[in-house]
Specification:
By secondary structure, this protein is an alpha/beta fold. Helix content is 34%, strand content 28%. The protein has two domains: 212 residues, P-loop containing nucleotide triphosphate hydrolases (Rossmann fold, 3-Layer(aba) Sandwich); 41 residues. It is built from ten helices and 13 strands. The two termini are 34 Å apart. InterPro entries: AAA+_ATPase (IPR003593), ABC_transporter-like_ATP-bd (IPR003439), ABC_transporter_ATP-binding (IPR050763), P-loop_NTPase (IPR027417).
């Protein structure tokens, strides 16, 4: 079994009289891409701030690299990469100069910069000043900066926000490669299709508590509807149930040569999210 890289056990946090996080418990093994999903205001960013010691919990235990987070050292945090809405880029410096600066600050080799520029689709724009970059270019530069030192643990808060489909797909491929090499990823996103594609497991947060945590496909099967949809030659669309009566109805349609297609009606992750939280993203 892989070592646990990051965990929370019965963690709670309140701001004055408002309970923001309530008894959060999860454990993330090395190399897992873990999605942390929830509506706006559910506590996702607050959780990341606790995990990166920007905030202090009221109760519970947090472990980082197998040790209590209170004992984490600066060397531990050198093993972490972070992309958030507060990730800093220097406006009057070029894309490449920002990456060179981050490599210097992280004590990383600058030989990785051309590779990151190419993977992020920034090679042709590397001399562009950040102040002249689009939102998507800024996001890709910030992600490259978070990866400059090849972190073991990566916190990503909406990593593909503002990216076009091609750039988003390339980021997804890169994240899969990183996870395959043992990098642990903690991802928040409003894009449920992204969570399905990237994440090994997802936790759905609602009002500061975890409503469900499992593999995306397991969650979708758990909340599957008891319905089969059959498109027929002459009888239109027929709906039947996933039971003996439904099997008999489907057999009759097959025997009559009516069946054009059969679909089992499982929800996607977005529908599961809405069912569990009752709220939009």
């Amino acid at each position: 079994m892989s070592a646990t890289i990051l965990s929370m056990e019965a963690v709670s946090l309140s701001f004055k009289d408002k309970r923001v996080l309530n008894n959060l418990t999860f454990a993330i093994p090395r190399g897992e891409a873990f999605g942390f999903l929830g509506p706006s205001g559910a506590g996702k960013t607050t959780t990341i701030k606790l995990l990166t010691r920007q905030l202090k919990r009221d109760a519970g235990r947090i472990s980082l690299f197998g040790r209590p987070i209170d004992n984490a050292t600066s060397a531990d945090y050198e093993r972490i990469g972070i992309l958030s809405d507060t990730s800093a880029l220097y406006e009057r410096m070029s894309i490449a100069d920002n990456l060179r600066l981050y490599a210097q600050l992280r004590g990383a080799s600058q030989r990785r910069i051309p590779y990151l520029l190419e993977r992020m689709g920034l090679a042709d724009d590397q001399k562009t000043l950040i102040k002249n970059c689009s939102k998507g270019m800024r996001q890709r530069t910030a992600l490259a900066a978070a990866l400059i030192h090849e972190p073991e643990l990566l916190f990503l808060d909406e990593p593909t926000s503002g990216l076009d489909p091609a750039a988003r797909a390339e980021v997804h491929r890169m994240l899969a490669e990183l996870s395959g090499k043992g990098c642990t990823i903690f991802l928040t996103t409003h894009d449920m299709a992204e969570a399905e594609t990237v994440c090994d497991r997802v936790a759905i947060l609602d009002h500061g508590a975890i409503a469900a945590c499992d593999k995306p496909e397991a969650l979708m099967l758990r909340y599957a509807r008891n319905r089969i949809v059959v498109k027929t030659r002459t009888r239109g669309t027929v709906e039947t149930s996933k039971d003996a009566a439904g099997a008999a109805a489907l057999a009759e349609l097959l025997e009559a040569g009516e069946v054009l297609s059969v679909h089992s009606d499982e929800p996607n992750l977005e529908e599961v999210f809405l069912e569990l939280t009752g709220r939009e993203f």
